[in-house]
């Protein structure tokens, strides 16, 4: 029996769609509303669904008995009820090897843009305020201190790129040892608050969990230097936005670059929009064309392996479902 895969508009790149259509039945839902996903899975007896930003809830899992596999086009899993999926015997896959270079490049871009006040400087020239060069003095990032919070693939690649700019790199990650960080030229720290006063840039790349929710709030911004910057390419709720707004308005820190926000898409009246010392992008740090192609091909093939009874190295709930083979 040929199995069926559900895609949801806007869906993955053609390279992934082509692989799926050549090997499986493929149906496409017009949107990612919960009721639409349930309708299409049940109507077409879909065995797998591949999502990008859509939510797979406990309700979907309870109402869709044919579902065997959930594929996440990306790394983050906060839109999937993984415990419920595991309870229902549904495999959850992601694509963790696809976009880390793109995210690290976006972080470097943010560091450079903040250090040169690029957003404001561009506007000054457009407004015929050439004299801006006499009143504002940008900073070098050479020999500055960067703290990377979350030393996974993105953090490790960012460290390599930052070292090329001769930055001093600190790393915070409870799951990576001091010796492992040293291999990347990074000094491991165990207490973020203790080191915040010495950091010029902080770049966030941690997953969103109960322990990382509002990891940066009023206390942390009070500890940072007035000349320091924060960059978030992890998840919006790693930062308490009210605390960040307070820090930016009262010049407790110099600026921020945010690719993620607590509410996405944000309300048009978000007060951060009014600030000149904030650079905002629409959660696309990992969405370069190259990364999207890699991610689409990867998740399509991994879902295919799972549907064919083979174990994927990207199976998130591998041990719990008891289908681990030779992978570690």
UniProtKB/TrEMBL annotation:
Give start and end of each D-isomer specific 2-hydroxyacid dehydrogenase NAD-binding domain.
108-285
Q: Which UniProt keywords apply?
A: NAD, Oxidoreductase
- Report the domain of life of the source organism: Bacteria
Annotated GO MF terms:
oxidoreductase activity
What EC designation does it have? 1.1.1.-
Residue stretches making up the D-isomer specific 2-hydroxyacid dehydrogenase catalytic domain = 5-317
Which residue ranges traverse the bilayer? none
Annotated family: Belongs to the D-isomer specific 2-hydroxyacid dehydrogenase family.
Its recorded name reads Hydroxyacid dehydrogenase
**Organism from which the protein derives:** Bacillus salipaludis
